[in-house]
Automatic annotation (TrEMBL):
<dbReference type="InterPro" id="IPR025665">
    <property type="entry name" value="Beta-barrel_OMP_2"/>
</dbReference>
<dbReference type="InterPro" id="IPR011250">
    <property type="entry name" value="OMP/PagP_B-barrel"/>
</dbReference>
<protein>
    <submittedName>
        <fullName>PorT family protein</fullName>
    </submittedName>
</protein>
<feature type="domain" description="Outer membrane protein beta-barrel">
    <location>
        <begin position="51"/>
        <end position="251"/>
    </location>
</feature>
<dbReference type="Pfam" id="PF13568">
    <property type="entry name" value="OMP_b-brl_2"/>
</dbReference>
């Protein structure tokens, strides 16, 4: 009986002690809320940031926007507008390939994407030579000129993920600085000769000439776009579309006529700014690991 009484008394004392401790903890939590907040797991803190490194490539379309027009001819008895060039839109394909280095933190990514980029644009001129005394003596000429510019480009973007998880749509905005590596232009001449007695169309083979001296060494601009990334295995697949808006005239005004091999046919580059739409595909790999797994919240 004594043993039973002692056992009951011990149980009462233990329960009373636990109740007192619980009440004390509740008071302590109210007075010091920080004590009641669970500390972030070390792994969770680790996964809030991530470095990514990988390869990216893609295709692009370019448009040249003339901001001031020039010609190798000075009209005397016809309108100056007849000498103006007609530019193609976003038609000629180009491409780019490079690497991507990205730092991620809490939904924001800061991405450096150095690449080698090829951009193309074209225009054409049309001229008609008339015999003032004989209207049948006429020569129509059309000059199609395709320009190919190669740049080493260093763009920088700030991205924001719109969702979390494996599939992440994002928006991005940034700018770029590019250095001209090479430039060529191809010229094709077509026309109709009515003065030779055998009127009919003709065309010449494309003539490719170096055009690096016709352009300045740098190109700068701003850019923005959208994309989506998908995480699987230990890599990230990125698809994006970006619009680049050139902010400087890329024509070398000093060499507009002096270094132009086609000045004799009336060619003179206009002052132009570049517009470009790029579509990219990237494969990125994480540089920080935890328990042989990776993630980025």
């Amino acid at each position: 009986m004594k043993n039973l009484t002692a056992l009951i008394l011990s149980a009462v004392l233990i329960l009373g002690y636990q109740a007192t401790e619980a009440q004390s903890k509740r008071k302590r939590d109210k007075m010091y809320p920080a004590y009641s907040t669970p500390k972030p797991n070390k792994g969770d803190r680790f996964l809030q940031t991530q470095w990514w490194l990988g390869f990216r490539a893609g295709a692009s379309l370019t448009e040249a926007n003339p901001i001031r027009r020039f010609s190798g001819f000075s009209p005397i008895n016809y309108d100056q507008e007849l000498t103006e060039k007609t530019y193609s839109g976003f038609e000629l394909p180009g491409g780019h390939a490079g690497i991507e280095i990205t730092f991620y933190h809490r939904g924001f990514s800061f991405s450096l994407q150095p690449n080698y980029r090829r951009q193309r644009f074209s225009y054409y001129n049309e001229f008609t030579w008339d015999d003032a005394e004989n209207g049948d003596n006429q020569l129509d000429l059309k000059y199609d000129q395709d320009h190919q510019l190669d740049y080493i480009e260093i763009p920088f973007f700030v991205k924001y993920d719109l969702t979390r998880g494996n599939l992440r749509p994002f928006i991005q905005i940034g700018g770029y600085y590019a250095r001209l590596a090479n430039a060529n232009k191809a010229v094709e001449i077509t026309g109709t000769d009515y003065a030779s007695g055998d009127a009919g169309p003709f065309n010449t083979e494309n003539v490719v000439i170096g055009a690096k001296d016709l352009f300045i060494k740098t190109s700068v601009g701003v850019a923005g776009g959208v994309g989506v990334s998908y995480d699987f295995w230990n890599m990230r697949l990125v698809l994006d579309a970006t619009y680049r808006y050139g902010m400087n005239n890329i024509t070398n005004a000093k060499n507009r006529y002096s270094k132009n091999e086609l000045a004799g046919i009336g060619d003179a580059l206009d002052d132009v700014e570049m517009r470009n739409i790029s579509f990219g595909l990237g494969f990125l790999f994480p540089l920080r690991f935890i328990n042989k797994q990776f993630d980025a919240n």
